[in-house]
What we know:
This protein is an alpha+beta fold. It has helices at residues 9-18, 22-42, 48-61, 67-76, 81-102, 106-112, 130-141, 147-154, 158-162, 177-183, 216-236, 244-258, and strands spanning 119-127, 166-171, 190-191, 195-197, 200-210. Strands 1, 2, 3, 4 and 5 form a 5-stranded antiparallel beta sheet that branches. The longest helix has 22 residues, at 81-102.
Amino acid sequence: MPEHLTISTSDIIHRLKVSCQIPEVIEAIASQVIITEAAQKAGIELTEAELQSEGDKFRVEKNIATAKETWAWLDKHHMSVKEFEELIYNNLIAKKLAHHMFAAKVEKFFYENRIDYEAAVTYEVTFENRDLALELFYALEEGEITFPEIARLYIQDPQLRRAGGYQGVRYRKDFRPEIAAAVFAATSCQMLKPITTPKGVYLIWVEEIIQPELNEELREKIICELFDTSLKKEVQFLKITTQLDADATQVQNELLNHA
């Protein structure tokens, strides 16, 4: 094992290539160009107070509390103070642009797509054998066994087994279509008859059906969704030329010249 390792810019580019991450990086670069240009056209400006507040929020999210921790974080991410300020600026300008473009459209979108924001709290156990799932379903109806007991007996994953098959709060789009149809036709605290899918037979306990309310959290979620969708469309129509190989060659030549 080597005691010291030197990684060059070309090494990083190569790693991005072989790990199939280049398309994501290119999309991120293109997205930022579009955001910057759109914000300028819209006349969106940021104040020092807004940037300071956004920077403080970012540090809280990253658990950066002291100056020492700040420098350690910057060093880990190979980022200068100026680049950190650029990061905060980019984050905030994107948020303000998203609100500028879509804040007034949220309510209309919500009521037209209300069904998509229905959520459900479920517990699930998956089987390969439908007959076994049916047998357990009828045993549940007769009170011969409980769902937590089924989860302990038939869930292989230790963490999921300890949680009793708990799947959390999920929206309609998070379920397979055949499962969503059954789940959202149910009422809270209802056991569903086994549902057969290509991935197995699902035995599902619906603990709660949550009707959507347009609160601030959902409002922000919708704004982000609309903005992301719009941005992806813009990137798709953008003609992008990359010069990765040329840049890598240039870096290698510069390294040789300084050797």
